[in-house]
Amino acid sequence: MIYSSTYYTDLFGVDVPTMEQIIATALGHGGDYADLFFERTVSRNLLLRDSEVSSGGAHVDYGVGIRVLKGDKTGYAYSESTRLPDMLAAARAASAIAQGVPPTEPRPTVSFRGMPNPAADRYPMQKDWRDCPMDTFPPLLQDLEARIRRRDERVMKVIAMLTSQVSDVLMFNVQGELKYDTRPMGTLAVSVIYGQGKNIQNNHVSRSFRCGAEMLGDALLDELADEAVRGITNRLEARRPKGGKMPVVMGAGASGILLHEAMGHAFEADFNRKGQSIFSDRMGTRVCREGITIVDDATLPGNRGSLNFDDEGVPGQRTCMVEDGILTSFLHDRLSAAHYGVKPTGNGRRESFRFNPIPRMRATYMESGDARPEDLIAAVKKGIYVDEFANGQVKIGEGDFTFYVKSGFLIEDGRLTRPVTDINIIGNGPQALADIQAVGNDGKVDPGAWTCGKEQQVPVSCGIPTVLVRELTVGGE
Amino acid sequence: MNSEPIIPWSITPEEEALAGDCLSRALACGADGVRITLNKSLMDLILLRNGSMDKVTHSGDRSMTFCLFVGGRFGTFSTNRFEADELERFLTEAVATTRMLAPDSWRKLPEPSRLVHDAVTGRELGLCDPAYAAMTPEERIRLVREASCFERIRPEGYTLISEETEYSDSVSDLLILDSNGLHARHTETSFELGCEYTIADPDGHKISGYWWDSAPMRADLQTASVCPTALERALAQMGSDQVPGGKYTVVVENEVASKLLNPLLGALSGYSLQQNNSFLTDSLGKKVFCEGFTLRDIPRTTGANGTRYFDSEGVATRNTDIITGGVVRNYFLNTYIAGKMGLDPTQEDCFKPLVMPWWSFGPQPAQMGREEILSACGEGILVTGFNGGNCNSATGDFSYGIEGFAFKDGERRPVHGMVMTGNMIHLWNNLIAAGTDIRPCMNKQVPTLAFKDIDFSA
Lengths: 477, 458
Known about the structure:
The complex is a heterodimer.
Chain A: H1 5-12, H2 16-26, E1 33-49, E2 52-70, E3 73-79, H3 84-94, H4 138-151, E4 155-173, E5 178-196, E6 199-209, H5 218-229, H6 232-237, E7 244-250, H7 256-267, H8 269-273, E8 294-297, E9 318-323, E10 326-327, H9 334-340, E11 348-349, E12 358-359, E13 363-366, H10 373-378, E14 382-394, E15 400-412, E16 415-420, E17 423-428, H11 429-434, E18 436-439, E19 450-452, E20 458-463, E21 467-475
Parallel strand pairs in A: 7-14, 13-20
Antiparallel strand pairs in A: 1-2, 1-4, 2-3, 4-5, 5-6, 7-21, 8-9, 8-13, 9-10, 11-12, 14-15, 15-16, 15-17, 17-21, 18-21, 19-20
Chain B: H1 13-28, E1 33-49, E2 52-70, E3 73-79, H2 84-99, H3 137-147, E4 159-178, E5 183-200, E6 206-215, H4 226-236, E7 246-252, H5 258-267, H6 270-274, E8 295-297, E9 320-324, E10 327-328, H7 335-341, E11 353-355, E12 358-359, H8 370-377, E13 379-391, E14 397-408, E15 411-423, H9 424-429, E16 431-434, E17 449-457
Parallel strand pairs in B: 7-13
Antiparallel strand pairs in B: 1-2, 1-4, 2-3, 4-5, 5-6, 7-17, 8-9, 8-11, 9-10, 12-16, 13-14, 14-15, 15-17, 16-17
Helix pairs in contact in B: 1-2
């Protein structure tokens, strides 16, 4: 959503001459670049527990972040007030990075003047969350619980949470670029506890979109209710399999978290700039078989990871990291782009005005291949099919990753047989990428509330088609 | 006359008065009960990369959180805008919003008899270092430069890719008030140094090693050992491999052992228990774990990281037995959850857990550190890091990726890419040793632990 520039300048009580004064102060000790990031975020939440919406609240966060770059060095400070003396004090604190740092060669900077065409606005709000009375929503959460309980009587407890967030942001930099944006986010999440006798299990599902309250409707409630109870019987019967090395088929959609963690982070340019990533010296080389394309995308309408601009004012865009098996681009913010002498890719993101931007993913996914998903399963004599991953972690330098399998199946003689749960899959990112043997034709971006926690929390999405990996280690009994 | 230096960014008398005004304002708007928490924090950070300054940040935060009880209803609201007109509008809307929620008879302020009375100045716990006021940008730079080893390292048999050394110091100041007369404060400073090395072995495989230290008092921060220890930990992982899967005795180093305690603390939380989402449901007073497992909460320990005189409701904390001889003695229940469960409230969280020493190998030695435990175990896997994994909160089933060493009769070789699986109740029933080598810098006081018969896959 993009309003007029005066909406933002009035909101923060600033004008261009004032912002220029702050930039000049930030560069008072030198530096190649400086920028300002104003933000006001209003978030609201409602919680249903024990069948009552008896808890909720609202939160306001407001301030401005001031950054100075000198070569690869960063100075950063922020103020929770937009009174001029407070902003100038923060600018002086950020300017400290240039003190005592030897001069560097000035680097070319890239300008992105002008606004995107409003028609390309990726998240217009039909119903602004801020204008919706809070009493609109409790009946909706109770309706969701009723739909879940109607679907399966083994459900013992339901916790449902509706969260909305709307951020107004204004960005200004030393080149005089002025960018502004209003970013909505609505998230409906539900946890169910269900059981049979003494066997108690839980399940957590969510939907999250950059849009207004128009996202809430019958279709969404039914979709969440279906997913909340899907596979309950399997989960109650699921057992740990015997561990060892075996082929793994990853289901379409949410398995994309493995792509995000095990490969995507290693493609972020800050790790590569510092030589720490396992992919640091592999640009332009083959990293997986032909036909595999991996994308990080800010342009999907209403997607949780989408952006009109990133948090440095660079237009949101679609970045191809791996094209037909060849590593073609890292994910850049302005700093790393200047380091590599390339254009920023719109990946400079931050949690809030309290943080300096760093290269971060948006919606990361693998494009569809040409195999039928059932053929991938049929090709495995003994292995694991993974429905849902959780709690992934990767070591950027080593490339080693570990992912917790929340639900899946044993594959025996090309068929899904027994349900499995509570196991880990471990492997090495580049090796797993190279070991992808086939890619399904069912690519899907998962609509869940994924949040990436690299130093700061930012909303992201992930996706993948059904994929067959030759061999990974499965932890079991 | 008070000669203590003024800590920068601490709560001012004007801000304290503003919080009091907000409390009155909320009551005037129609709230029956109000709790206000005013938080301020200030942090400075310097990051050196390869011995050169890479990043400096300066962060000053403040916020006010309002818990409102209105006609049997409850809402939580927060803002960092302290202008009087903004606050008035915010509070009026907050009270109106709370009226839209469903009534919940269990939502109430804690009984005044449970509130803390001995946290008046915020400094009673000895966590606020007057030396913080004297920290200057120059001193911070000097400190981190001295700690960095980059210029002194002469790599042999490996390539040094990067050294990142980060120093930060901070102060946080918290004031909590409620309409039942609660008025308490907690102030603490923190000094922290961390270092991470990325190296490459002769085959080009990258390995990283990390170490850190933290203390409330500047003089207690161990600066000289952080970078050398981080490098040592990276070098020790060179040439790592896997060992065959099977059942092993596992020794979990004190640096990472709290990972195995966290699921237990979560399972003893009232919110998990009340929602049937806990593998320790109905465990109070029962012997669930082995005889040697004793866990205490010691939140009133003066001068120790993580200690608190009161929880987020302002309820006074107590040093408490959580598990003694394997018997569960305590749940963590705030006023709301205790009411719903029909139990007496305790405190809402475990602030300073302490795992007591235990030795199943015969007479207990005076020193029980990692090396003594490895020696007593003889053979197994030493875990020095976890890489991902999860514990199912309802069942206690866990699966964690690990790195560390396979050890046998004093020899050890690095391993990685292995998975440790099991169930939390089974794991803590198989505890065979809990050491005495607690790291003072850690909030959770968990020493090196040893467990028998644990499944590993590779």
